[in-house]
Amino acid sequence: MVANNINENELAAQLKIKLGEDLSITEDKYFTMLNIAPGRLLALMQLLKAEYGFDQLSNLTSVDFVETFEVVYHLYSIASHAKICVKTRIPADNPQVESVVDIWPGADWQEREVYDLMGIIFTGHPNLIRVLLPDDFEGHPLRKDFVRKEPGADA
Fold this sequence. Notes:
The protein is 22% helix and 29% strand. The chain has a five-stranded mixed β-sheet, with helices on one face. A two-stranded parallel sheet has the order 6-7. By secondary structure, it is an alpha/beta fold. Strand 3 (56-64) and strand 4 form a beta hairpin. The protein has a domain at 3-98: NADH:ubiquinone oxidoreductase Nqo5 subunit (Beta Polymerase, domain 2), CATH 3.30.460. It is elongated, with a radius of gyration of 17 Å.
C-alpha cells in the first residue's frame, strides 16, 4: 500500500491519468516500473513524493543501451513500506536529465556518481563534479564506448 491506502496498481492508474502518453507502466515480480518521458520526470517525481509519500530515493543508477541511456530511480515510502521504480530514457549523444536533488537531497552523491561513471549531466544539480575519479580522468568508464588506456601508453 502507498499513501491514501492505494496499492501500486491503483497508483499507476492514477498517474497514467495525470501524465497521459508521457507515462508507460510495466512490472515484474519485484517492482512496478514507471517509464516517463524525460521532460516530465520532475513532475512525476514531485507527485510521487508530495502526493504518494515516496520519501526516500533508495538508489539512482543508469544503463547504457548504446544509442540511449536509461536513468533508473528506486523509490521507497518509509511509512507504507511501498516501493516503485522510475525510468527515463535519454539520447546517448546528449545525455541530460533534470536533477532530483531539490526533491530528495540524498540524490546529490548518487547523481554525481552517475555523472562521473556514465557522463550523464543532471541539469540543475548544485555541484555536479566528479566524486570517484580524479578530476583529470578522461571519459566515463561504465559507458560501453569507453576505451581503457593501458598504463604508460601514449595518447
